[in-house]
Write a structure and sequence with these properties.
The structure holds two protein chains of two kinds. Chain A is of the alpha+beta class. Chain A has five helices and five strands, in the order ββαβββαααα. Chain A has two domains: 2-75, Beta-grasp domain (Ubiquitin-like (UB roll), Roll), CATH 3.10.20; 86-160, [2Fe-2S]-binding domain (DNA polymerase, domain 1), CATH 1.10.150. Chain B starts with 15 loop residues before the first strand and ends with a helix. The chains are: A alpha+beta, B alpha+beta. The interface between A and B is large, with 60 and 61 residues.
Chain lengths: 165, 821
């Protein structure tokens, strides 16, 4: 067994875990956050995508011990109280989900994209979510959702910057 | 939480139904389901965790066909954390996995929950290991040792029907599970009179539904209460409850099935699976809650598959393109066992083989075939995509053969709108349609003429542009009970609570379709209230009256109608009480904007006051039942028949066989629309799934019965960058079958897009002499078709040249022959 300390959505979790424990099982079984879903356990579907130190990773192929001392953001960590994150709003407004199973992974993958590329083209959006499979939507409304989030976030950023000054 | 998309001003009425203004129906309302889903705070079955819960994993057969000599479980039991290992010896008291279909000559093999004596497909469960955590359970499953005696395997349908085949089930002495014929009209004379007979063999490959959430089951048994609760990722909680109570020998009243959040189904969860019985049995046996969640490998190997037919098609035509008759011979690969609806699916194909055309004579023969594979069953469209593929492909092959434009060929053979309701040669009565209108609209939207011009000029420059046309008609709102194995009605209860909030209980069991929103829109309009005040409850057999479930595009058309009808009963009841309280006649009461008002707006009572009066019941008319609740079991009088026309424009690389989708246009008619945003979503997803079949998806078993496409690395689902933006339009032809005039839209996209895409690619390559390519149209397969066509053309040209040369100069003719040798 190994001791790990992982900050999940800003809260530190200490646990003694088997070295083979996957990060996704750590999140779901140890921390008890089940918004991160398991879709294939082989890194192919992207349902388990979370942010590890801000970058999207598929948590079914990261060991909990590899996340020791690092920061993890899951879908549960995006909204601020009652205020949804702009990406979540985008998915709601543009009907970017149907069954919702792949959604947390796609949201976190697009979070990574928008942090690196605040105004992606539709092609860039489609390419960035290539590792996230959705069987319900045909992706078109997902692309609309991410585009809409990008616009919203770009509007808010200058306003926030101005407020800071 | 932000308010749910309420318009700022009172929206304009876009139609009145039953005297009620449509404020919410037809609006692009944001979904009520979404806030919990986008925050990851909803609960799918695998998210359920109960105190003292155990986890299980299955040891499954690596052989497609083998005798089980012995099973050794000692090593598995020795794993730390393993609580028990169970084999068929332990589970023999559990009933057989059910098949709901009856046919005169249907052979129904025994289908025990764990393999008994023999295994018949790769992945068949042999033992189950239960442990304190999933890691220990899987360690244990790896250590279950089974002595197998491998037997000969059959995976090819034609071989399975031949003389020297091994039998999947020895007791039948044949692999022919059933035959089914549908014949009508004078087929012999149709083919005799025909100027042209178009023949084509086409394969419809085996597919995996791949809902993103795999199957999952949790069982909990409380012996004191004699209450078994089963959470399952299912589309049919009530039917599952009935079947599991029989399999487990419990009174149905002791069993509660809950379908919590369900992550997609596409037909794969419209079933009763072995694991759904084993997991609750374990919970009873061990007196602890037990959970099983499928791995993706299990999902691909052991959840039902779809399609898998060989179709020999012959179309008899007059020289002007008029259809005279259609003959189809189908072999349907059923796999090794029957799941719930396995033998039904090819019969649905037969019913829909008239497509959207006037066909005076038809002759269909189907054979269902056992092979050493996982069962096939209902996958999105369930028999109808197979039918549409046959019809729409043969129409295109015929149009090409006759040198007619594909669209014109179809116009020629459509029934006219005034001929509806239209009785087809297969015996169905299509409710309403305007096939001409939808195809015309699709032609306009795709700029069809300019696509054709581009194609012609492209050929001159060695570019292969193709235009694919596909029309379709779908059988939805399944269905009248007489035509279904387990009842085709649906239940709906509407209850106005004392505080005026409304609960809708529906027997439909949505799993992504958004009926918590659309039903709220529907009922809110009927009661003149806000959809935020309507809470739609589904998927819990203790909360909801018996229902059938969600499949076959029936949720809205059958389940929604049940809720609508219940609301009509409730409105009559409200009017009675309001008339009593306001001293008026019930017929003079109108309901709307939160009030009940007498004729001429003289007197009114608020919705809340009226409902409270029904519950306090101190001042009610004689004979008036207190409370405010009504239930309706809606039995549809017919199916509904949505239809449409899709057009795809593609470019095929003649060197590599790669296909690029330039444009995809879909004009669909699903009758009246409750929420356009959700209808678009259904169409988008359906198109993507149908293109998946056309382009990438294929489950492959090798000769030994090994599933060689057993992971998402090998089974290629459509990804975002592979798909274009789809351009959608609608025509609206209300259905007369239900009062809302809705038809259903869950499967339309899947049905139309597969032949549309294949038609486009074959059209692109037609100048090269390519007539047909079997799916999926992977670059390699397209390239082979091009190369093959090129080779036969060269051969033909050389033969022609040789023949010409021979007649003029016998010497050079011999040379040509020598080169070819």
């Amino acid at each position: 067994m190994k001791n790990v300390t992982i900050a999940v959505n800003g809260v530190e979790h200490r646990a003694s875990v088997e070295p083979r424990l996957l990060l996704v099982h750590f999140l779901r079984e140890v921390v008890g956050l089940t918004g991160t879903h398991i879709g294939c356990e082989t890194s192919l579907c992207g349902a388990c995508t979370v942010l590890l130190d801000g970058r999207a990773v598929k948590s079914c192929t990261v060991l909990a011990v590899q996340a020791d001392g690092r920061k993890v953001t899951t879908v549960e960590g995006l909204a601020q109280g009652d205020k949804l994150h702009a990406i979540q709003e985008g998915f709601w407004e543009e009907h970017g989900l149907q069954c919702g199973f792949c959604t947390p992974g796609v949201i976190l993958c697009s979070h990574d994209l928008l942090s690196r590329n605040p105004s992606p083209s539709d092609t860039e959006i489609r390419e960035s979510i290539n590792g996230n499979l959705c069987r319900c939507t045909g992706y078109q409304h997902i692309v609309n959702a991410i585009r809409s989030a990008s616009r919203k976030m770009n509007k808010r950023v200058p306003a926030r910057a101005a407020a800071a000054r | 939480m932000a308010r749910n998309g309420k318009p700022k001003a009172a929206p304009k009425n876009n139609g009145k139904r039953n005297g009620q203004a449509a404020h919410w129906v037809g609006k692009k309302l944001k979904r009520k389901e979404d806030p919990r889903l986008i925050q990851g705070i909803s609960h799918y079955t695998d998210d359920i965790k109960l105190p003292r819960m155990l986890y299980c994993a299955f040891a499954r057969s690596p052989h497609a066909h083998a005798e089980i000599r012995d099973i050794h479980t000692d090593k598995a039991r020795a794993v730390s954390g393993v609580v028990g290992v169970f084999t068929s010896q332990d589970t023999s008291g559990i009933g057989m996995v059910p098949c709901a279909i009856q046919m005169p000559d249907l052979k129904v093999p025994k289908h025990p929950v764990l393999a008994t004596g023999r295994v018949r497909f790769v992945g068949e469960p042999v033992a189950v290991v239960v442990a304190e955590d999933i890691y220990a359970a899987r360690d244990g499953a790896e250590l279950v040792e089974v002595d197998y005696d491998p037997l000969p395997v059959v995976t090819d349908m034609e071989k399975a029907l031949s003389e020297d085949t091994p039998f999947v089930h020895d007791e039948f002495r044949t692999n022919r599970a059933f035959t089914h014929a549908l014949k009508n009209g004078d087929i012999a004379s149709a083919f005799k009179k025909a100027d042209h007979v178009i023949k084509q063999r086409m394969l419809n490959q085996r597919l995996a539904p791949v809902a993103m959430e795999g199957r999952a089951v949790v069982g909990e048994y409380l012996p004191g209460e004699n209450r078994l609760t089963i959470w399952s990722a299912t589309q049919i909680p009530h039917l599952l409850r009935t079947q599991l109570s029989v399999m487990l020998g419990l009174p149905e009243t002791a069993v509660r099935v809950i379908a919590p959040e369900v992550g997609g189904g596409f037909g794969s969860k419209l079933n009763v699976y072995r694991e759904e019985a084993i997991v609750p049995w374990l919970a009873m046996k061990l007196n602890r809650p037990v959970k099983w969640a499928e791995t993706r490998r299990e999902n691909l190997a052991c959840t039902i598959h779809g399609r898998d037919t060989i179709n020999d098609v012959e179309l008899a035509l007059k020289k002007d393109g008029t259809i005279l008759g259609l003959r189809v011979r189908i072999l349907a690969d059923l796999g090794a066992y029957h799941q719930l609806l396995t033998p039904l699916i090819p019969q649905l194909t037969a019913l829909m083989l008239a497509g959207s055309y006037k066909i005076p004579a038809i002759d269909i023969e189907i054979q269902g075939v056992f092979t050493n594979k996982m069962s096939t069953d209902a996958y999105r469209g369930a028999g109808r995509p197979e039918a549409t593929y046959i019809v729409e492909r043969i129409m295109d092959v015929a149009a090409h053969e006759l040198g007619m434009d594909s669209a014109q060929f179809r116009f020629k053979n459509f029934p006219l709108s005034k001929q509806f309701p239209y009785t087809t040669i297969t015996g169905l009565t299509y409710d309403s349609a305007k096939y001409q209108e939808s195809l015309k609209k699709a032609l306009q939207l795709s700029a069809y003429d300019s696509l054709r011009r581009r194609q012609k000029s492209g050929w001159k420059q060695g570019k292969y542009y193709g235009v694919g046309v596909s029309t379709y008609v779908e059988i939805c709102a399944i269905g009248p009970s007489a035509a279904t194995p387990a009842g085709g009605w649906e239940s709906g209860t509407v209850r106005i609570e004392p505080t005026g909030k409304v609960t809708v209980l529906t027997g439909a069991s949505p799993h992504g379709q958004g009926e918590e929103t659309t039903f709220a829109q529907l009922i809110a309009d009927q009661l003149g209230i806000d959809p935020d005040d309507v809470n739609v409850v589904h998927g819990d057999t203790m909360a909801v009256p018996y229902g059938i479930g969600t499949f076959g595009s029936r949720g809205t058309a059958v389940g929604g109608t049940a809720a609508y009808m219940a609301t009509q009963k409730l409105k009559a009841k409200m009017a009675t009480l309001a008339a009593h309280l306001l001293d008026a006649k019930p017929a003079d009461i109108t309901i709307g904007r939160g009030r009940l008002t007498t004729k001429g707006n003289k007197k009114s009572i608020s919705f809340g006051e009226l409902v409270m009066a029904a519950y306090t019941a101190r001042n009610i008319p004689p004979g008036f039942e207190p409370g405010m609740e009504a239930t309706h079991f809606f039995e549809p009088s017919n199916f509904t028949f949505p239809f449409g026309a899709h057009i795809a424009s593609v470019e095929v690389d003649g060197e590599t066989g790669e296909v690029k989708i330039d444009k995809y246009v879909a004009v669909d008619d699903c009758g009246n629309v409750l929420n356009p945003l959700l209808v678009d979503g259904q169409i988008h997803g359906g198109i993507a799934q149908g293109l998946g079949q056309a382009m990438w998806e294929e489950l492959i078993y090798n000769e030994d019965g090994q599933l060689v496409t057993g992971s998402l690395m090998d089974y290629a689902l459509p990804k975002a960058h592979l798909l274009p933006d789809f351009t959608l339009e609608r025509t609206v032809t209300p259905s007369p079958v239900n009062p809302m005039g809705v038809k259903g839209v869950g499967e339309a996209g899947t049905i139309a897009s597969t032949p549309c895409m294949v038609n486009a690619v074959c059209d692109a390559l037609s100048p090269l002499g390519v007539r047909h390519i079997d799916m999926p149209l992977k670059p390699e397969r397209v390239w082979r078709a091009i190369t093959h066509a090129q080779a036969s053309r060269d051969e033909h040209e050389q033969a022609m040249a040789g023949a010409v040369a021979k007649s003029s100069n016998s010497k050079s003719g011999r040379k040509t022959a020598g080169r070819r040798a």
